[in-house]
Design a protein that fits this description.
heterodimer; A: alpha+beta; 2 domains; 5 helices; 5 strands; B: alpha+beta; Aldehyde Oxidoreductase, domain 4; six-stranded mixed β-sheet; 2 iron, 2 sulfur cluster binding (chain A); iron (chain A); oxidoreductase activity (chain A); 2Fe-2S_ferredoxin-type (chain A)
Chain lengths: ~150, ~700
């Protein structure tokens, strides 16, 4: 096992882990960061969606070795203290969540989308692959548009 | 316990709900969850409050405590699986207490020893609406009385707001500051009757979930997130076929891997306990296992469908001189696939056990776990944790039993998680079914309507005919015979086959197939008669309330507006759980292999809608379910194994399949609340199928359509 250091939600962390250990389990089982959820382990459901150097990743298929000396952001790192990120605030305002299990991933995917394009079209939003088994998609769409407006 | 006088509830049913006072240092009141039978109108209770105090809380009751920290705490004997029951109950409590919603806490109750702790059948709001409001109204009366005594003012001059009692001179006292003295009040000086609906300001107001902030910040804790000291990640190697039998295990390589603590044989597979889930999955994959094929290893979908079709009871004789409109439908197996895979934490010791998992039936789960590990049920503590979705899946507690068995064998606490592959390939399924419907038309109207069907039921035999499709006797009338339509002689029958496959109730249960099939046929009858589907329903539906939701959906959704080629509208209605709903769906099927539902308008009448925002969410979810099961999501059985293994091939709808526009219209009502969690599925399924049929000129018969 080797030692890997990276920035997690603004703080430097170091873990002892096998090189191929997925970041998801490093976060959840070694660091106790449980916002990113396991939903499939193969990058398909995207419940674990987080950011690596600001870009969207699925930590269940990213080995920890790929994160060395880089910046990982999970749902826990999105708000600025008690001030929610505009995407989180839009999620509250639209009451998007039902069971809530996929929503950390949905929010991180939406945040990454809004970074790439400040005013996403319906087609851009349709390209989000994250599964919501409760079927909250209409409110997700509404919240993304609301967050985009709040950024103006 | 101190029995406070029973009071009539404010609801139109005039059911009465008893409230008791629990002897405690802080104000604690309790209401039984089973409804007490209605008394004769006008009959007053024979006595007022008793002064008899009993210590301890009754396990059967809904208990409300006002803490000195000014929180209102109600331990809810229901599971929160995303349906929003904790928010709805918090609203009922906040309404009657005049408390701030933020001061109301609704933790989930541990498994109890008796009483009603069942979450299912869309029954939670209707079963809690009376008791929860009566409980809070009683607590309020006592708090007001305590303040009156403190201030030496007449109780009737005091008001309540924002979790405080307010005097006419503006003095305030928080409920928390009054709770100790209110606990000693037995005869409130003001009425403890719930408010009339006309004075509701919380109930009926669209309200954001009370746990929304926890969810969006990642703080909401599911079973896999609960920190239980020393609970080791555990996964299970399962057979390639359903109920395959383990022949041999060579676990030397697995045990030799770093971070592996134990390998445990289970009835359904081989569990690996490790330091992390990464190590557990690695070791699982290093197990050298041989399996005997499961009991269905020679069966695939084609045979199952043929056997189902053969098990459908015969249609009766149509009325003389009538013209038949006939149709046959097949529905595939569907997985529940909640986002949170089954997960349970178990700590089983020699003399006791403690578990953490989400359960719709925690009392049954506790008893089953106790039996599995050889403990008395009283020695097993089950903490109910919020669930990442359920859709009926958490009526069963497969993972909890496995976790308990592994913990016992490995002599350590474990956190057992099914993989997504386990969930899809070995999880439970909505049974496949086959339906035959005949409407008999004479003189321009339906004079007889019959549906006969067969579905799969679960066999627990591992061998022989009964495990492989033995025919089950006809099991009586269908659940759909509610007389929704004026269709003359309505009849039905059902049969089925038994298969050794894991099945479970799936949101809306039989109505999801039976009523969907009927709504498709209703459209086909209208077409045969040359009548518009909405107009046909309007003239044939029996109930005013269901006609009202139909009219609302049709008007709000601009029924009949011109649609481009390949696009169409579809409509369907459903009535169940004391509620009714209509769904209007618009579909773009210009590529029939890749249809997109573009817009959905629903109208619902569920009686009093406690949280219209939560109700809208349930209708939205049901719409996504309808789109999924009708157009694209199902499970195949190939030689005794489920073909699919993740959301890559179990094609539950994603954003690109969801409507661009979704509207829910909630009809005003002051009636008792009905059920809503499952209500929307049959109407959404029917509307999507009918829209597809109208857009493509086809007659959809086998679901999902793209499979």
């Amino acid at each position: 096992m080797r030692s890997y250091s990276f920035t997690l939600n603004g703080r430097q962390v170091t873990v002892q882990a096998p090189a191929d250990m997925p970041l998801l389990w490093v976060l959840r089982d070694l660091l106790g960061v449980t916002g990113p959820k396991y939903g499939c382990g193969v990058g398909v459901c995207r419940a674990c969606t987080s950011h690596l150097d600001g870009a969207e990743i699925q930590p269940c298929v990213v080995p920890v070795a790929d994160c060395a000396n880089r910046a990982v952001t999970t749902i826990e790192g999105l708000a600025d203290g008690d001030t929610l990120h505009p995407v989180q605030q839009a999620w509250m305002d639209c009451d998007v969540a039902q069971c809530g299990f996929c929503q950390p991933g949905q929010i991180m995917a939406a945040t990454a989308l809004l970074k790439r394009t400040s005013h996403p079209t319906d087609a851009d939003i349709d390209a989000i692959e994250n599964i919501c088994r409760c079927g909250t998609y209409a409110r997700i769409r509404e919240a993304i548009k609301k967050a985009a407006e709040s950024g103006d | 316990m101190d029995r406070t006088e029973p009071l009539p509830s404010a609801g139109p049913s005039r059911r009465r709900f008893m409230v008791y006072t629990v002897a405690a240092a802080t104000l604690t009141v309790a209401a039984p969850l089973a409804c007490t039978p209605s008394r004769a109108e006008g009959a007053e209770p024979s006595r007022a409050a008793s002064d008899v105090l009993v210590t301890g809380t009754d396990e059967e009751m809904l208990v409300l405590e006002v803490t000195e920290a000014n929180h209102i705490v109600v331990r809810l004997p229901r599971a929160e699986v995303g349906q929003g029951i904790t928010t709805a109950v918090a609203m009922m409590i906040a309404e009657e207490l005049d408390a701030r919603l933020a001061d109301v806490r609704i933790p989930l109750a541990d498994a109890r020893t008796k009483g009603n702790q069942y979450t299912g059948g869309s029954s939670s709001v209707s079963s809690l609406y009376g008791p929860a409001r009566q409980l809070a109204a009683t607590a309020r009366a006592k708090l007001v009385t305590a303040a009156a005594r403190r201030w030496h003012l007449p109780a009737r001059t005091l008001r309540t707001r924002d979790t405080m009692v307010v005097a006419p001179d503006g003095r305030t006292a928080t409920f928390g500051s009054l709770t100790a003295s209110a606990a000693r009040i037995h005869r409130p000086a003001v009425p403890s009757k719930p408010k009339p609906a006309s004075r509701h300001r919380v109930i009926g107001r669209p309200t954001t979930r009370i746990d929304a902030r926890d969810i969006v910040t990642g703080r909401a804790k599911y079973a896999g997130d609960v920190a239980v000291a020393g609970a080791k990640p555990t996964v299970v190697a399962r057979p390639p076929t359903i109920r395959g039998k383990l022949v041999s295990v060579d676990d030397r390589a697995a045990r030799a891997l770093p971070g592996v603590h134990a390998v445990v044989r289970l009835p359904g597979g081989v569990a690996v306990v490790a330091d992390t889930f990464h190590h557990a999955f690695r070791a699982r994959d290093a197990l050298r296992l041989t399996w005997a094929p499961g009991p269905l290893a020679r069966l695939s979908d084609a045979q199952i469908r043929a056997r189902l079709k053969a098990a459908v009871p015969r249609l009766g004789t149509p009325p003389h001189g009538s013209t038949p409109v006939e149709a046959e439908f097949a529905f595939a197996f569907v997985g529940h696939a909640p986002m949170e895979v089954l997960t349970a934490v178990a700590d089983v010791r020699a003399d006791r056990a403690e578990l953490w998992f989400s359960s719709q039936t925690p009392m049954d789960a506790r008893d089953a776990v106790a039996q599995a590990v050889g403990l008395r049920p009283s020695k097993v503590k089950v903490h109910v944790v919020r669930a990442g979705g359920s859709f009926g899946r958490r009526l069963n507690y497969d993972a909890a039993i496995e976790a308990a068995l592994v913990s016992k064998a490995a002599r350590r606490p474990v956190k057992l998680m099914w993989s997504r592959g386990d969930d899809i390939r070995h999880g439970r399924m909505r049974p496949a079914s086959h339906h035959r419907i005949r409407a008999s038309v004479a003189g321009g109207r339906v004079v007889a309507f019959e549906q006969v069907m067969a579905s799969v039921s679960e066999s627990y035999d591992d061998a022989g005919l009964s495990a492989q499709g033995g025919v089950r006797a006809a099991s009586g009338p269908l659940p759909s015979q509610t007389g929704l339509y004026n269709f003359g002689r309505v009849s039905g029958d059902s049969g089925g086959i038994e298969l050794a496959v894991p099945l479970g109730a799936w949101r809306s249960v039989d109505s999801g197939t039976v009523r969907t099939a009927e709504e498709i046929v209703v459209d086909e009858i209208a077409r045969k008669l040359g009548v518009d589907p909405v107009a046909f329903r309007r003239t044939t539906l029996r109930g005013k309330a269901v006609r009202a939701v139909l009219d609302k959906a049709a008007a709000a959704g601009h029924w009949g507006r011109p649609m481009p080629d390949g696009c169409a509208q579809g409509i369907a209605v459903h009535e169940e759980y004391g509620s009714r709903v209509a769904c209007l769906a618009e579909i773009d099927a210009s590529d029939p292999k890749n249809p997109r539902v573009t817009k959905v308008v629903m109208a619902a009448d569920v009686g009093t809608a406690v949280n219209p925002r939560g109700l809208e969410a349930q209708l939205m979810g049901a719409t996504t379910d309808g789109i999924s099961v009708i157009l694209q999501a199902g499970l195949h059985i190939d030689r005794g194994a489920v073909r699919e293994s993740s959301f890559a091939d179990f094609r539950y709808a994603r954003q690109r399949h969801a409507p661009l526009v979704f509207e829910a219209h909630i009809l005003p009502s002051t009636g008792d609340p009905g059920g809503a969690g499952e209500l929307g599925v049959p109407a959404a399924s029917g509307a999507v199928a009918n829209a597809y049929a109208r857009a493509t000129g086809t007659a959809p018969r086998s679901f999902p359509l793209t499979f």
